[in-house]
């Protein structure tokens, strides 16, 4: 497979309402920043991929309107949409397009502007006969799976609250983050409003406006343009049953993420993820999910996730910092969230993380995507091809 | 087998399947897709287990479903498998699948597209694809844009209406879909829907699903042996005023990319068969012009989309028609499949197919 690397990233600031910018303006802001970060001019981009969940803004084929803002006029441009994994899936599509030899430089832009739509309405448009009534949207279906996960693995509300605190404190060092809460405490999370047992307000991700972009390059331009490219070592995607009732103990087993990680680790030569990875940017829509992902991603044995967060293993100064950016719990423009994971993992390899740069040389970084009921994307990046 | 263009693995169209187009298919979306996928797998002589990855094409707002590939995950066999979804015409999804194959990530990829215009006011939904600040409030939809484009072309061309009516009548007569057969006079007498376009000129939109198996593995002896040798696509500017509406420049760019990709010179590599995605007769003229197609090329021998088609499925159905054409007419060497989406052909895709030796 042709070598592929990420050589530039660009992000807007994320907020609950970016009324100062239209959707195309957000796209342009992120695209322009990523292209400049890669040391390119817009004309040099060969093709563009856009990631967006169009129903959240009530749009059809949004790339038709947004393409020009992404410098795509007169170029190949497609839109990828796979729910929460849209962003990571668009990045993986970009890896494939560059690896195919069809293009040398591909721009991926993820956008969501939740303030201009009704996200819960969009998410409720699932199978009208079965799941719509009981599990539409992120809250209901997560509440069901989390209760089961807690019962089987003994994870506590306090341990989940610690994840929420870590995310919002990390976000305070990320200039783009939506929820920056440097002084947030576990007790404050536990005292926040219950949404659907056991999920409380501060356990849950926000809805954000914003866009994020990356530039993917073939080997030659990557070496020429970037002093420390983030090489794509492996990527994997696994999709799952469309009905929540058909998925056996979703968060407990998380077989999609488990299998995608196994496959990607194998190709990237990762045997012990906790030691072999230097940083991880994982897609955690809710605090409890991060704990379940620790187990599925092999950071610890099943049932050990609570100990991992209690011991600070995944803190900024821990053995494997998870989500130095503040993660999805701190910024969540859905169509962009997966691109943000890949961009933030790349930033850490580029050494351009600013205040959120982890205090070590990052040679291997992990990014994941999560969507629908248990769809999973895994991307492993490395400082060496 | 010769690997075309610099030792790249050839991409074979291993199997195709299609259901519809129907004016109204009583089946659900998953049932329709299941039928198309079943036919494509049977045509390829494969099982789901031999498919490494899936690329689907669908548009959420048209389906009234969020991430509408959720509806088809099971029937395309994507549970615990890699699937991605291109929200555009089905031919663009096939082109992305070909990229996946060329990248070396997979050996066999299934492409599936579905569209069900009967269950919605498709025309109204296309308004939601228009610039919501400057165009949507004016009730501009895809049909209105086609009318504007036809109007720009007909402006100085007094014979356009009759010529288009004759073309539409000819295509309808050759087609096997659900569109009524009409004479040119009947087309000219049909109601104006977006001046100068009349109802009888427009390809009716209905329900359908299509599936194609693409593979780098050579087909078993005796099976269809057609290769996808070149691909290109393009997104033009959105606003009508920013484009020369009398030309499909985006298609010209897409075709140039496809030819360059295939290493096929336009002066020597004659296209024997063209299967364009044209919903209106003026689009077929734009297509001929953009692709510099002359009398030596057979265009839409089975009527193209004029017999009826389904949104999103159209381009993939053209890929299937082009592959079948190459298979059935052994003297055809090179075929072109075309997909278009968006207002006045804003999005364009081209795939070049070659009969394998």
Given helix and strand content, the structural type of chain B is alpha/beta
Structural shape of chain A: globular
What is the rounded Rg of chain B?
A: 19 Å
- The H-and-E topology of chain A, N to C, reads as EHEHEHEHHHHHEEEHEHHHEHHHHEE
Q: Segments of chain B where pLDDT lies below 50 for 5+ residues? A: none
User: What about the largest sheet of chain A?
Assistant: 9 strands, mixed
Tell me the number of helical segments of chain B per DSSP (H or I, 4 or more residues long).
11
Q: Please bin the fraction of helical residues of chain A.
A: 25-40%
* First-to-last CA distance of chain A: 11 Å
| Lateral arrangement of strands in the main beta sheet of chain B | 3-2-4-7-1-8-12-11-9-10
Mean pLDDT across every amino acid position of chain A? 96
Polypeptide structure, described:
The complex is a heterodimer of chains A (385) and B (357). With 385 residues, chain A is of the alpha/beta class. Chain A has 2 domains: 4-119 and 208-225, Thiolase/Chalcone synthase (Peroxisomal Thiolase, Chain A, domain 1); 130-204 and 233-382, Thiolase/Chalcone synthase (Peroxisomal Thiolase, Chain A, domain 1, 3-Layer(aba) Sandwich), CATH 3.40.47. Chain A is built from 16 helices and 11 strands. In chain A, the strands form 2 sheets. Chain A has a 9-stranded mixed sheet. In chain A, strands 5-6 form a two-stranded antiparallel sheet. In chain A, helix 3 crosses helix 16 and helix 7 packs across helix 13. The mean pLDDT of chain A is 96. Chain B is α/β, with parallel strands linked by helices. Chain B has a domain at 4-120 and 205-215: Thiolase/Chalcone synthase (Peroxisomal Thiolase, Chain A, domain 1), CATH 3.40.47. Helix content of chain B is 33%, strand content 22%. In chain B, strand 2, helix 3 (60-63) and strand 3 form a beta-alpha-beta unit. The longest helix of chain B is centred in the first third of the chain and has 16 residues, at 29-44. The mean pLDDT of chain B is 94. At the A-B interface, helix 2, strand 3, helix 3, helix 4 and strand 8 of A face helix 3, strand 3, helix 4, strand 8 and helix 9 of B.
């Amino acid at each position: 497979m042709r070598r592929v690397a990420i050589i530039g990233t660009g992000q807007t600031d994320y907020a609950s309402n970016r009324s100062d910018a239209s959707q195309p303006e957000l796209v342009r802001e992120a695209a322009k920043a990523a292209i400049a970060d890669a040391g390119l001019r817009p004309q040099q981009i060969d093709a563009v991929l856009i990631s967006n969940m169009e129903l959240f803004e009530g749009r059809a084929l949004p790339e038709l309107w947004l393409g020009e803002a992404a410098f795509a006029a007169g170029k190949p441009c497609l839109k990828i949409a796979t729910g929460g994994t849209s962003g990571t899936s668009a990045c993986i599509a970009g890896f494939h397009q560059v690896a195919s030899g069809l293009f040398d430089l591909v721009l991926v832009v993820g956008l969501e502007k939740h303030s201009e739509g009704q996200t819960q309405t969009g998410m409720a448009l699932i199978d009208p006969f079965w799941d719509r009534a009981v599990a539409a949207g992120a809250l209901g279906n997560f509440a069901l799976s989390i209760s089961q996960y807690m019962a089987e693995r003994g994870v506590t509300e306090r341990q989940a609250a610690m994840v929420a605190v870590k995310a919002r404190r990390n976000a305070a060092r990320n200039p783009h983050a939506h929820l920056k809460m440097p002084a947030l405490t576990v007790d404050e999370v536990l005292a926040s409003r219950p949404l659907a047992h056991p999920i409380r307000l501060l356990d849950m991700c926000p809805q954000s406006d914003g866009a994020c972009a990356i530039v993917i390059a073939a080997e030659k331009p990557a070496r020429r343009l970037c002093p420390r490219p983030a090489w794509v070592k492996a990527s994997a995607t696994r999709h799952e049953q469309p009905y929540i009732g058909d998925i056996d103990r979703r968060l407990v087993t998380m077989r999609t993420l488990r299998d995608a990680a196994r496959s990607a680790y194998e190709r990237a030569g990762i045997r012990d993820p906790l030691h072999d990875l230097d940083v991880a940017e994982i897609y955690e829509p809710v605090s409890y999910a991060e704990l379940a992902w620790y187990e599925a991603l092999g950071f610890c044995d099943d049932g050990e996730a609570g100990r991992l967060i209690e011991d600070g293993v995944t803190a900024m100064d821990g053995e494997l910092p998870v989500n130095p950016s503040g993660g999805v719990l701190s910024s969540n423009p859905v169509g962009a969230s997966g691109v943000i994971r890949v961009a933030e993992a790349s930033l850490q390899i580029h050494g351009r993380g600013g205040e959120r740069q982890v205090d070590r040389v990052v040679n291997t970084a992990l990014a994941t995507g999560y969507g629908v009921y248990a769809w999973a994307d895994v991307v492993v990046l490395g400082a060496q091809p | 087998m010769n690997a075309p263009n610099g030792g790249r693995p050839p991409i074979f169209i291993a199997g195709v399947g299609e259901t519809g187009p129907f004016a109204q298919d009583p089946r659900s979306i998953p049932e329709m897709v299941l039928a198309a996928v079943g036919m494509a797998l049977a045509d390829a002589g494969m099982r789901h287990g031999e498919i490494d990855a899936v690329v689907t094409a669908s548009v959420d707002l048209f389906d009234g479903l969020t991430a509408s590939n959720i509806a088809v995950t099971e029937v395309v066999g994507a549970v615990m498998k890699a699937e991605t979804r291109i929200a555009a015409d089905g031919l663009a999804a096939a082109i992305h699948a070909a990229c996946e194959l060329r990248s070396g990530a997979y050996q066999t990829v299934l492409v599936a597209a579905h569209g069900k215009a009967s269950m919605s006011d498709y025309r109204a939904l296309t308004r939601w694809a228009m610039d919501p600040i400057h165009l949507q409030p004016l009730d501009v939809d895809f049909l209105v844009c086609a009318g504007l484009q036809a109007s720009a072309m007909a402006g100085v061309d007094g014979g356009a209406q009759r010529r288009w009516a004759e073309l539409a009548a000819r295509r309808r007569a050759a087609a096997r879909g659900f569109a009524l057969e009409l004479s040119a006079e009947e087309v000219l007498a049909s109601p104006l829907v977006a001046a100068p376009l009349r109802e009888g000129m427009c390809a009716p939109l209905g329900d359908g699903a299509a599936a194609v198996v693409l593979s780098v593995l050579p087909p078993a002896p005796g099976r269809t042996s057609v290769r996808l040798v070149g691909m290109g696509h393009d997104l033009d500017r959105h606003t009508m005023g920013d484009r020369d509406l009398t030309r499909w420049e985006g298609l010209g760019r897409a075709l140039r990319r496809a030819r360059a990709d295939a290493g096929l010179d336009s002066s020597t590599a004659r296209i024997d068969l063209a299967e364009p995605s044209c919903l209106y007769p003026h689009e077929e003229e734009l297509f001929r012009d953009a692709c510099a197609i002359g009398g030596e090329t057979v265009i839409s021998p089975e009527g193209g989309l004029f017999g009826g088609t389904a949104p999103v499925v159209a381009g993939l159905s053209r890929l299937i028609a082009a592959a079948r054409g190459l298979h059935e007419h052994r003297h055809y060497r090179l075929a072109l499949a075309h997909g278009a989406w968006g207002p006045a052909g804003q999005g364009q895709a081209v795939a070049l197919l070659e009969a394998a030796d």
